[in-house]
Amino acid sequence: xxxxxxxxxxxxxxxxxxxxxxxxxxxxxxxxxxxxxxxxxxxxxxxxxxxxxxxxxxxxxxxxxxxxxxxxxxxxxxxxxxxxxxxxxxxxxxxxxxxxxxxxxxxxxxxxxxxxxxxxxxxxxxxxxxxxxxxxxxxxxxxxxxxxxxxxxxxxxxxxxxxxxxxxxxxxxxxxxxxxxxxxxxxxxxxxxxxxxxxxxxxxxxxxxxxxxxxxxxxxxxxxxxxxxxxxxxxxxxxxxxxxxxxxxxxxxxxxxxxxxxxxxxxxxxxxxxxxxxxxxxxxxxxxxxxxxxxxxxxxxxx
Length: 303
Fold this sequence. Notes:
transmembrane; three-stranded mixed beta sheet; alpha+beta; Jelly Rolls; disordered N terminus; 3 domains; 8 helices; Phage tail protein beta-alpha-beta fold; FecR_C; 13-stranded mixed beta sheet
């Protein structure tokens, strides 16, 4: 790739310093298309707001103040190239990465530059590079997301618990502070955790869970993640993880004695009815609860 061979190619292109053969080779490259999209995107660039005439005046005032004995004026096209390069640099600093985030109870759909579709669950964040996507199809995920990846090579999802590499597939990752679970719904994925020296290939119906730094493999029969249908499903899950997910979906907090929440839960709770969700979780567990008047705090008590 041009960027890898010569990191001055853009500056020399803007300044008109490429040879004819270099110019033709550059304008035939994928990087040239990226630069064209960047140039078009700058037409909507609002912050910071540049006034070319004011900036021109400030530049000449600074030069004349520091070099009163001799002033060398740049040719107009050098000046234009310098301004363009400055704007590109500032734009790169401000907008080199794209980030999507959800809050409590919110879900979001995202389409990545290659057409890959990502659905984010509540309290989740997805980040990726804004430009040169074809050279680096890597995203960072915190929280939970369902991925429908366009066929192609090099797509990776980085999490705090490891990296998932795919080749045209559908999968779901839940990477919360206290849990990591990966489900494969279509195609094939590779999970790798270099820190723990763990590695696993997953096909349709396969899943893995990281528990106390131990990678557990199991099967599932779902056709899509339950949370995309407005519910959270658990099988012999620690009750603390279920409480954490209730907090994410409803924006509530819990008060309880630690000994009261040491059990495990198997079942489902919905995302659109707080009272029903609380009953679905705590009644089978034999735990009573009180919901505050503002519906923001839940106090758990022994029966």
